[in-house]
Design goal:
single chain; mainly alpha; 12 helices; disordered N terminus
């Protein structure tokens, strides 16, 4: 598989340094242009999130990327998958392929909320009690393993070639860092961007302890999948959002060892520790 040996190092040599600069830049900018007031120490959370992400990041680099690339190369060689079967010029196939890849990731995200097994792992990500760019890589190893199977299969079914897979993955990771950041955008920029892509404000709503807010804004890159499925929301002011999972509000339960074993714990009722159901406190008109 010569392309696999060439493509994977290309991603790490070229895309990864750029992504590292993007993450570092967002980490600094969100301290100046702050979207939500932080309730917990950022340095401590950064250490925790990095420690949780370490194993998942290793899996992503050693298994997820190569398998995704292999799936794309396999589809290209066998002329298998939707965009391989359609009589389209290459540029159109790539455009449709990118949209399909993003849509399959929207569907994956909804599955991690709705399937109890996947939610056990995904709640590690949502249990962060504040949200910034470091939340964007706080994913449990188990969730990464399940995503390998799903994303590899979706790449084969869509027929996305390996170079498109790698290009989309770079955009995917950059957008994940961006919309998890605590970066406040100018209102006009926020309104314009939110029509097309998931912004920090929109994804902040997704990390709310209020259930119907938590079940919204599943997109990774584009916001129109949420609009299509009726899960798009921009009607909640950021200062009214409480970040996290209502039943996991005690920092003592969110240490690195306990986060690694959280998927083994029972799924708790969607209520605050005192038994109350979290509710929205205020709504604003939709920006979109």
């Amino acid at each position: 598989m010569p392309k696999l040996r060439l493509s994977f190092p290309w991603f790490d040599r070229r895309a990864f340094p750029v992504l590292a600069v993007v993450v570092a830049g967002l980490y600094l900018l969100e301290e100046v242009f702050t979207l939500r007031e932080q309730q917990h120490g950022k340095v401590k959370r950064t250490v925790i999130n990095t420690a949780v992400a370490a194993s998942g990041f290793t899996v992503a680099r050693l298994a997820l990327l190569p398998i995704m690339v292999y799936a794309g190369e396999w589809a290209d060689r066998r002329r298998f998958g939707l965009i391989q079967w359609l009589p389209l010029p290459r540029w159109a196939g790539y455009a449709i392929g990118a949209l399909l890849l993003d849509y399959t990731n929207y569907l994956w995200h909804t599955l991690t909320h709705r399937m109890p097994l996947l939610y056990r792992f995904h709640r590690v990500h949502h249990s962060d009690l504040d949200m910034d760019v470091t939340t964007g890589f706080r994913f449990h190893l188990g969730e990464q393993v399940f995503s390998i199977v799903y994303r590899g299969g979706m790449i084969a079914l869509t027929g996305a070639p390996a170079d498109l897979v790698l290009g989309y993955e770079a955009i995917f990771e950059g957008c994940t860092a961006f919309h998890h950041s605590n970066l406040r955008l100018p209102p006009s920029v926020e309104a314009a961007l939110s029509r097309i892509m998931i912004t920090p404000s929109a994804h902040g709503i997704h990390h709310s302890v209020v259930r119907d807010e938590f079940d919204s804004n599943y997109g990774v890159v584009f916001s129109f999948w949420d609009r299509l499925h009726g899960s798009h929301r921009t009607d909640v002011p950021q200062e009214q959002i409480t970040i996290g999972i209502p039943a996991w509000q005690d920092p003592a339960e969110l240490t690195v060892p306990k986060l690694h074993t959280m998927p083994l714990a029972a799924i708790r009722p969607w209520q605050l520790p005192d038994g109350q159901l979290p509710r929205s406190r205020k709504l604003i008109s939709d920006l979109a």
